[in-house]
Design goal:
Radius of gyration: 18 Å
Largest sheet: 2 strands, parallel
Strand content: 5-15%
Number of helices: 6
Strand order of the largest sheet: 1-2
Structural class: alpha+beta
Shape: elongated
Number of domains: 2
Distance between the termini: 26 Å
């Protein structure tokens, strides 16, 4: 309550429609709310890294293959081990580059890269 600067709330969410309301007196204490969606799935970032967007789209249309299934099939990726997989195969710079690529494809969304570039 005694914070003297403008407060900006940054929310990391996975839904475009998720609502957020603060109760009184907190609803008067912030300058703005910045919503950052966790889209895309981590697996889609992996597809972007390998430049396999078109291949994924074809398989998705043809077989209904989800991003996690595609990655499991082509990259020996397992959702259960995704943290370890990314630590072992990617640098921070690689991940930031992939996030930037996704951000350029979806310029009108607040993506995870929006937080990185600020």
């Amino acid at each position: 309550m005694a914070y003297k600067k403008d407060v900006i709330i940054v929310r990391v969410i996975d839904s475009k429609t998720e609502q957020f309301k603060l109760k009184k007196p907190y609803n008067l204490m912030y300058k703005e709310i910045y919503n950052c969606r966790t889209c895309p799935e981590i697996e889609y970032l992996l597809i972007l890294y390998h430049h396999d967007e078109e291949k994924f789209k074809k398989e998705y249309k043809k077989e209904g293959l989800k991003a996690c299934e595609f990655c499991s099939k082509y990259y020996e990726y397992s959702k259960k081990q995704d943290k370890k997989y990314f630590y072992n195969n990617f640098s921070i710079e690689d991940l930031i580059s992939i996030l930037e690529k996704y951000d350029k494809i979806h310029p009108n969304e607040n993506t995870i890269y929006s937080l990185v570039k600020h």
